[in-house]
Amino acid sequence: EAARAFEFHEDWELTVTATRYDLQEVKRTSIELSVVRMVATRSNQLAVQGLFRVRSALQRLAVQLPANAELDSQPLKINGSPVSLEKGDKGELFVPLVGQTPETPFNLELRYTLPGGPGRLELPEFLGEPAAQTVYLCAYLPEELVWLGKSGDWADENDWVWDGTFDRRPVPKHTDSDLLARVVEGCGPSGSSAESFQTGGRMYLFSALRPQPGAAGSLSLTTMNETWLQVLVFLAV
Asked: What is the C-alpha to C-alpha distance for residues 150 and 147, in angstroms, rounded to an integer?
């Protein structure tokens, strides 16, 4: 179709300058907010739920789970509805994005289990280097474990308060319910599905801005049995 139209009734002269611009490649996938909940169980396993607020212009989104991950019975949901995962080479998984548009965000939920404890908490990796923003990691530890320290490029999102004795307890600055509400906002009826994930123990909250993919961006927690810690403190005193 025509870009411009002119009409003249006498002698005329028209000078046209046309400029061609090169298209700039941009990220085709944006992960606006991520909330990952990891529950350390007494059976030395990690139950993982990842919630991601995503916009994408792709037809399929490639995901790489940590090594030895075992998928849940319904490992993938989009806006609260179960979706089948497609398996590729080298452990890659593909999320079909049929019916999604780049203008509208959607909520992507992953569920799986990992062997091991809170010594290393590794996130799922979205391949293709998408534009990623803030990631919140909710780590749940059994009541008998005490968190002593961490390693990794993660910020501590806990306020340390006295519990009425001579001990301080961390209180997360945001509850997991608040974080879930933020990540599913405007993405359809997915809130009730996200809240069905079972948690237990004491929650510790951490955050990172665009963490590195894979093991390089993992969070490691140093923990100890609370009874043994009290014995050591008593002996030291």
From this structure: 8
